[in-house]
Write the structure tokens for this entry.
Amino acid sequence: MAEIILDHVSYVYEEGTAMEYAALRDINLVIPQGQFIGLIGHTGSGKSTLVQHLNGLLKPTGGNVYFGGADIHDSDYNKKELRSKVGLVFQYPEHQLFEVDVFSDVCFGPKNMGLDQKETQLRAYAALKQVGLEDEYFYQSPFDLSGGQKRRVAIAGVLAMKPEVLVLDEPTAGLDPKGRDEILDQIAKLREETGMTVILVSHSMEDVARYVDRIIVMNKGQVLYDDVPREVFHHYKELERVGLAAPQITYIMHALREKGLLVDTDITTVEEAREAILKALGRK
Amino acid sequence: MEMVQTKDLVFEYIRRDDEGNVEGITRAIDEVSLQVHPGEFIAVLGHNGSGKSTLAKHINAILYPTEGTVWVDGMDTCEEANLWNIRQEAGMVFQNPDNQIIGQVVEEDVGFGPENLGVPTKEIWERVEESLKAVGMYEFRKHSPNKLSGGQKQRVSIAGVIAMHPKCIVLDEPTAMLDPSGRKEVIRAVRALNLAEGITIILITHYMEEIIDADRVFVMDKGKIALQGTPREVFGQVDRLKELRLDVPQVTLLAHELRESGLPIPEGILRTEELIRALGL
């Protein structure tokens, strides 16, 4: 179990060419084990670039990345092992499904880690159960499944490597509302059961508000805010200026407050809002 | 004349296994008859697999009916002679911008459509400028599309369609990959086109807040239209929508829950102002 530290990390794409572009500028972050973090930011703010530094896919052009106290870009650091500890699920992960059947696809990761067949199969089975996929689908072609199911298989593929840190880049993109809830509920449950660190990159302020302990806000390659959801969404005007917003419910609370209803305006979920309104109206 | 009309539309596709043997038939659209009037802002909702994208692809003749008929501005989509006209009049914007951009430079990509229509050069550039401004991407006109973020690419794709001056635009989850401000801009641009230019808009989305201003909403389920009506009529049925795997705007959900807790609040609340009034504030 280890924490990740980004120490003065910068990343410049195509350094020294005409296309040079600074995607990350002096990022300093400490990510302790077990946190549930939301990473938000306008498109182009550097979120995807940032997460690719967490498992060493990208090497900083400035600064260092540490995992469990060790510099991951040291010449003798085992990057392959890092990639099984820090699992990265890209957007539209179903695009990386390729095997003849679901079970084989999920076995791919552990197999590549060098695990024996028995251990590989045990892990694949456990991972598929963790994402809530029913047994009847295990030997079907991944391409016959629905979008949400494919998504879950892809996530299982990463979970089979038993990562300590799970990074999901917009895991709900393209799913219908119920599908969104199902995947996020599953991930939250998994985190409670295993103590995994989860980093959720998302454009849905409502999703992020509902699930995470901490929100990191990116703006033009830098960290703008790093705090609990209530505090971050308190700065809703500033968030709007950088291409984001607070969850709709927060705006509703502000409007109600302006009309004289004594409610907490830092509320970020519908459940909290309902309770606060009923209380303020003396109906509880 | 209706902008879009379908009568008893059925769309089936054959599922084949690895060896090409027929495994079965999926009926993606199951006898759908609907009309869209010119200038309307229509929303199409539905869980994944409900048939909404399949339906959308019939409107600019990417797909043809297995049974039944689809007319776009009075033209039957099955008649080959109508194809160019249908595709100019009904433009489509997809969810993934990478599948839609072909130009090396943003303004060239946006000009591609009008160029193919034979629009005079000077006018092409005017259209490119107005379209890019409409989506807030004018400052990027000389950039390579490769270097843009997903949301920026998407806005360029939309500009490319707008530049064709279509009568109707079908957008299949156009904001799925955008950040909140990007979503707002796209929807605002689309709304402006509808209100100012009278362009018919058919918007497929999972973001319920985007469609509270729609004229009508169709909710699809298993290839059929399960619900239809104004946004208020449709969103007033919170439990039914949940059964259909959908959602409602947060203000609607909050109002619904307050009502369930005993407050005298009507169903179908769509806006904060309405909730404020209902609470007597």
Summary: The interface with chain A takes residues 18, 46-49, 95, 147-152, 173, 176-183, 206, 209, 242, 245-247, 249-251, 253-254, 257-258, 261-263, 272-273, 275-276, 279, 281 of chain B (CB under 8 Å).
